[in-house]
Amino acid sequence: MLGTWRxxxxxxxxxxxLLAVIIACGEEATDAPAPAATATSAAEVVTLPPxxxxxxxxxxxxxxxxxxxxxxxxxxxxxxxTLDVGMANLGPYVATxxxxxxxxxxxxxxxxxxxxxxxxxxxxxxxxxVKSFDxxxxxxxxxxxxxxxxxxxxxxESQGDWGNLNADDFIWSIGEIxxxxxxxxxxxxxxxxxxxxxxxxTKIDDLTVELKRPTPTFQLTWFSQAPIPGFSMNSxxxxxxxxxxxxxxxxxxxxxxxxxxxxTDVRRHMKxxxxxxxxxxxxxxxxxxxxxxxSTRLANFLAGxxxxxxxxxxxxxxxxxxxxxxxxxxxxxxxxxxxxxxxMWHEGGHYTPDSKHHQPNEEGDIPNDIxxxxxxxxxxxxxxxxxxxxATEMSSDDRRPWISCDRDVNSPEWxxxxxxxxxxxxxxxxxxxxxxIAFGEGxxxxxxxxxxxxxxxxxxxxxxxxxxMDYDPVAAQELLAEAGYADGFAVRVNKRLGTGTLLxxxxxVATDWLEMGLDVxxxxxxxxxxxxxxxxxxxxxxxxxxxxxxxxxxxxVYSTVYTSSGTNLFGINHPDMDQFILDAEAELDTxxxxxxxxxxxxxxxxxxxxxxxxxxxxxxxxxxxxxxxxASPAELDWLSYWDHPRRRQ
Length: 649
Description:
The protein is an alpha/beta fold. The strands form 7 sheets. Strands 1, 14, 18, 19, 20, 21 and 23 form a 7-stranded mixed β-sheet that branches. Strands 10-11-12-2-13 form a 5-stranded mixed β-sheet, covered by helices on one side. It has a 4-stranded antiparallel β-sheet with strand order 5-6-8-7, with helices on one face.
């Protein structure tokens, strides 16, 4: 790759162990007593509250075109300095849409590429690569106008002039994202909006595209919106010229940051695009250092080699201690309240093997194939003896007690598995997690992925949880006994390698389950490896996630992770859930659509199909060379608006 690395000399090697010992950054957070003060009590704190509105325009309403974000003074400013960011387990870099999994797409839309729309600071969508769009009176024709002058990067190797974003790029990118068999996280949703049966995309002129649909949609702005995640645009000319093998690894986006060098498990090095069509960064370079070890990231930050980064609560407390001792007086924090939901979920509950998405189409292809052996509840339960509708003998090694061998939610077998799931949830001590892992920076959470508190109250979802799903180890033991597992069972927890407090939460939950009498095994797994097996419905263990609540509506996530057509899964698909999602997607009335989403949330809660634990504040330390900036209220575990960090004055 072209370019030289001019960032700070990030510390590596054995010397880090000395500093790690000095700052006493431990991984056994669950054994620590609850602190008297939060991690940010003594430092200067910039609190940026997330929006709770989450409203989306109905498709028949044409939004007012937003003025492109451009600041003449910033455009004329010469970028200076290097912004060094400490991240972890970023995985391999992929630059093209077809092969972009969750983490690859997430990085692209936050840093090097741009989406059609973007989530603003208040949680409302704004225009980005789309300048405006009009909707016909019958809400079946959408005329989309693209921004002028959104120039493609040259590409680190090819250094070509690929021109500006145009209608051909738009139509080609949509086709690549929604291509059958593709790995893109928004493949299914993109197909529903732009490529449904009867849908057509037509080029009107170089900057105008017309979408015709057989039915209205309110989701045009949803799945192409960063940072939740959406999808970004790629250059058709670049792809056609250099070929897939080169395009797969060569960054050609339109964002204010252009890739200079990417080395898997080491770093991603970007340079600012001067005179960018929208906004030129203040920093000349930005380097995301891929540092999986928490103590190493912390040591680099305290040594001044990182300007900011993602850290777990132990590390943030160590940084706070350094501030309090006077050794780092210029460090401060950005705090985003209740920004990250910590969750666990039961895998293997795929109750839709007869869905059209798992059956051959007219060409004989299966859009979402299910593994013949362990990919769905029928095969998992093949070796179980069913007596009076209840699985009584589990002779198969692949049997999981939380998976029902009957998808009828009114059956005794379903109730047995539901009791197991509830017992596992009620044995988790949320308060201990918040106090000892988040150092008080959080609150209990019972309805996963919801961000709109006003709608939660309106639909009665705010009353779910306390008293019903609170920590109660005695009730948990009783539920296990009723389900036939008084002596416990074996459970494997997959630890997705990640950042922040995710790994500590999994360890703490495993400890709670051990105390309940379960035989727990912990297994590390890379995110990319997990996603491949998850897409094929081959995972049937327990998994963890920390992610931002859903914007603008829960349906935005439900239709991605809780549907038989999904390519990014939460471990459960059920015909009733599919129907809730289809009904909501067909409902143009906003209040009625929220009502359907509320019913789906209650279905998930009552059947314990997810295990939300607590909402944690996103806390980002800032070194003396960088100042705070505004970010979108979504995806705050990776932040956003990375072209906006300001140099400290």
